[in-house]
Write a structure and sequence with these properties.
heterodimer, A: about 475 residues, alpha+beta, D-Maltodextrin-Binding Protein, domain 2, seven-stranded mixed beta sheet, four-stranded antiparallel beta sheet, 20 helices, B: about 300 residues, mainly alpha, MetI-like fold, two-stranded antiparallel ribbon, 12 helices, flat
Chain lengths: ~475, ~300
């Protein structure tokens, strides 16, 4: 018996040592590959003249005044470098404005890493030294309220930015970053109203015309959309993925995801579930995950996909225009508003409470999100759909707004009209988790592997895992 | 004279303890202390919602009550065990066969070094890369389906959705674990087999035993200590299965969480930094691992005791 115990102990100890090492090894490896690919892309995009040596060596002298900016990618940094006068780039992660040195803390958002990092730093903000404090950080709409509805962010008023300064912005972009007391706490240079991007070839074949107005009439509401989808299926095409239409429904809900700490599934979300199930059963829509290979097949003519849903950034970044075999390269896409107005994406700038550079933060926010000349520059140089009613109106009425991959169509009129109609009074800080989990859970139901009740239960379980303070209905 | 010799032995033994210090230090810091803090944490309500930190408040066994109030935990435990068994059974059988072939004095296989390297190779690829590879291979429009359609084995209009069906998704996870670990197991078993006195085999051959008889009457019984070791390490590894299903299903454990393992479930609590629930789940896993390991040990050792 003694022998048994000794042996058992030895075996257990060996196992306890070996197994976690193996398990952890795998996890760590992923992290390393992620960062290496990220730095690799950063380096290629930021190729200019930054060598690796420069990137690793800090150019900030000791004791210098520092502005800390937290972001999840290079987007805002390149906008600031290109369009903010007086910004001088020192290295891939450092810059200089006047006497102030700018330090970029860029953490990719994969696996929630950006928010985890930001949360930990913000929670320590009060005790941090002035030059270690976050001065400004960027947020996305899906989780903006998580930061906006706390004391971690400063209101625009306290920064000295007035309503008049922001009058040319679209209201929806301000709703997203307004806290529960009505204080505006962020600002964006983008207005990401989105619509339906259709395959012109398919539209001619199925609807007889590829004119945006004809197509819009065929998808004007969800009933017409479903009818068209069935025609599309009969012609051997797929309309799109259920995940493509998701945001259109979720932007048009009548109540918040969470009410009195209970998860509430809105009528419009129910409608998404039922509409999508019917269309998947009719083989008119598929269940491909966004960004996957199966989903991306429609970018080529032989993928036989009728449409994608997306905003202006989708044109240049997601349709593979550089690949000569894609529909985009041949100007084969068209754009219309689609069944309901919605938006997708966008980046908001927030000022962190406790910043020691409030004046500079104010100036950056004003210049980057309200200066019309800068916004016009961003729109034409970077094809962003900017957050300015007058700049978009200019673009809509001039040839500058014509886009080759849309066959020369000027989508800015529809984009501007869409941006006016977006209503976002029902956002909550739980949106990101709820949206992600509902899409994930419903996939099984759409594919016939689960009943609707079970899928909803799975959704609730997953949401409560993320937010342990919530209860199922 | 006698005394002097004794003190020299003690002095010499001291080095043994000194050499053990690094291990004990690492073990204490990275294994023992975390083990106890985990148990301690499991009695607290301690999580984060958005930027709001809740707790830590002492709540006794409430985390355990929550954990066991739904049948989910048993479902994930079941998933883990099913996927482990699906991978382990073929793995141990193939490893035994390969081990027996490679070590068989009568077969004298050529190119042993080459084959040993090749069967071990899959283990060198990191699990995440391997899972990504399979994810791409078995995508709905992936190469495997294209091949099957090309050979006329599948209807092009309705490609089989490997990762949307419980059995195929679990089978893929099991198959990957099998591929990754059978080389390791083979090498462990081979070292065990090589440790068996060759004169026993020769004697058996002289006595006219068939190769089946040699395998069952000599190899297997003498291999038992190594087999137990392989079983237990693999069982613990299996209970901690994470990387392959996590990457393959993008952390969802789909379809309908039928490939969600216990550690993937633990990982889900990371989002809200829910240390309380995470601790409770880890303690559960610790207890289950201990129970199963003791069971395996007792079961496989039952016959051996009588001879002593």
């Amino acid at each position: 018996m003694k022998g048994f115990k000794k042996k058992a102990l030895a075996v257990m100890m060996a196992a306890a040592m070996v197994v976690p090492m193996v398990a952890c090894g795998g996890g760590d490896d992923t992290a390393t590959t992620d960062t290496t690919t990220d730095t690799a892309t950063e380096e290629t995009t930021e190729a200019e003249d930054t060598t690796e040596e420069e990137a690793s060596e800090s150019k900030i002298p000791a004791g210098a005044h520092i502005l800390n900016i937290y972001a999840w990618n290079e987007e805002f940094k390149s906008r600031l470098t290109d369009h903010y006068k007086g910004y001088e780039e020192l290295s891939a992660t450092e810059g200089k404005i006047g006497d102030t040195y700018v330090k970029w803390n860029i953490t990719p958002s994969d696996d929630n890493a950006y928010q985890n990092n930001l949360d930990d730093t913000l929670l320590k903000q009060a005790d941090a030294a002035d030059d270690d404090k976050i001065d400004m950080f960027l947020v996305e709409a899906d989780y903006a309220l998580k930061y906006v509805d706390t004391d971690a962010t400063m209101s625009m008023k306290d920064l000295g930015i007035t309503d008049e300064d922001l009058a040319d912005q679209y209201t929806y972009t301000q709703k997203i970053v307004t806290d529960s007391n009505g204080n505006l706490k962020g600002s964006s240079w983008q207005a990401c109203s989105a619509g339906l991007i259709y395959n012109r070839e398919a539209a001619k074949e199925i609807l007889g015309s590829d004119d945006p107005e004809t197509v819009q009439a065929a998808v004007a509401d969800w009933d017409k959309y479903a009818e068209t989808a069935k025609k599309v299926a009969a012609a051997g095409y797929t309309m799109c993925s259920v995940n493509d239409t998701y945001r259109v429904y979720s932007n048009n809900v009548s109540g918040k995801w969470v009410q009195d700490d209970k998860i509430v599934i809105d009528k419009n979300m129910e409608k998404w579930i039922d509409d999508s199930k019917a269309l998947v059963d009719a083989k008119a829509e598929d269940t491909d995950d966004l960004w996957g290979d199966d989903w991306a097949k429609g970018k080529r003519p032989d993928g036989k996909v009728f449409c994608y849903f997306g905003p202006a950034w989708f044109f240049n970044f997601c349709l593979d225009v550089d690949d000569s075999e894609t529909i985009a390269a041949n100007g084969g896409w068209g754009f219309c508003e689609g069944p309901q107005s919605y938006y997708w994406g966008g980046t908001w700038i927030c000022a962190a409470t406790g910043t020691d550079d409030a004046d500079l933060v104010k100036d950056i926010i004003l210049t980057m999100t309200t200066d019309k000349d800068v916004l016009k520059e961003i729109a034409t140089a970077d094809s962003d759909c900017v957050n300015s009613k007058s700049v978009l109106a200019d673009l809509a009425s001039s040839d500058e707004g014509n886009i080759a991959l849309l066959g020369g169509q000027n989508p800015y009129k529809q984009l501007a009209a869409g941006a006016e109609k977006i209503d976002l009074s029902n956002l909550s800080k739980y949106d990101q988790g709820c949206n992600e989990e509902l899409q994930a859970a419903m996939k099984a139901y759409f594919e016939g592997n689960s009943t609707k009740e079970d899928a909803i239960k799975a959704f609730q379980t997953a949401v409560i895992e993320k937010y342990p303070n919530l209860k199922a209905e | 004279m006698e005394k002097q010799k004794n003190s020299k032995v003690v002095e010499y033994n001291r080095w043994g303890y000194i050499f053990l210090i690094p291990f004990m230090l690492v073990y204490t810091v990275f294994q023992l202390i975390p083990l106890f803090t985990t148990i301690y944490n499991s009695f607290f309500e301690n999580y984060r919602v958005g930027l709001e930190q809740i707790g830590p408040n002492f709540i006794g066994l409430e985390n355990y009550v929550t954990l066991f109030s739904t049948p989910d935990i048993w479902k994930y435990f079941g998933n883990t065990m099913i996927m482990w068994i699906m991978g382990f059974v073929p793995q141990i059988l193939l490893s035994l066969l390969l081990g027996a072939w490679f070590t068989s004095p009568s077969l004298r296989l050529k190119g042993q070094q080459f084959f040993k390297t090749v069967i071990y190779l899959p283990n060198l690829i990191m699990a995440s890369a391997f899972a990504m590879l399979f994810f791409t291979l078995f995508a709905n429009e992936g190469p495997i389906n294209s091949m099957l359609i090309g050979w006329g084995l599948m209807d092009a209009a309705e490609p089989y959705k490997w990762l949307s069906n419980t059995f195929s998704a679990r089978a893929l996870v099991a198959f990957m674990n099998f591929l990754m670990w059978f080389g390791n197991t083979t090498i462990l078993l081979m070292s065990g087999m090589l440790g068996i006195d060759p004169s026993l085999y020769e004697a058996a051959e002289v006595d006219g035993a068939t190769s089946n008889q040699i395998f069952y009457k000599i190899t297997l019984p003498l291999l038992k200590p190594i087999l137990i070791y392989v079983m237990i390490t693999s069982l613990i590894g299996g209970l901690q299965m994470f990387d392959v299903p996590q990457i393959l299903t993008n952390g969802t454990g789909d379809p309908t969480r039928n490939t969600m393992t216990l550690i993937m479930y633990l990982n889900k609590h990371l989002y809200s930094k829910n240390f309380g629930m995470g601790g409770a789940l880890s303690v559960f896993l610790f207890v289950i691992t201990a129970i199963l390991s003791i069971m395996v040990f007792k079961f496989t050792n039952a016959g051996g005791k009588e001879k002593k």
